[in-house]
Amino acid sequence: MKTDEIKRLYEWIQSRVSVGDGNPVAIVFAEPTAADFTDQGFEGDALHLTLRADWWPEMVTDIVETPEFAEPGETPEQILEYARDVVKEYVAKRLYT
To answer: What does pTM read for this prediction?
Structure first.
């Protein structure tokens, strides 16, 4: 995958991470399906390098567990940003060569 395609991929995945309702802060990840990848115009490589990769479930867990590692007093927006950073770190670490 080319650099611009990787960036588009992780930005799209990041857009699926949001703050849930309630207190304490919860992070929700609308995990994409294979059809979602296709609908977004990603080729088969993107699907196999992410959704079907061994590291994907670990990333999903890290995303939703982000609030557990937040400091007291951090805002929901800060925690959301941290959760979205998890996506970028996982994708960048595995797809940028």
So the answer is: 0.92
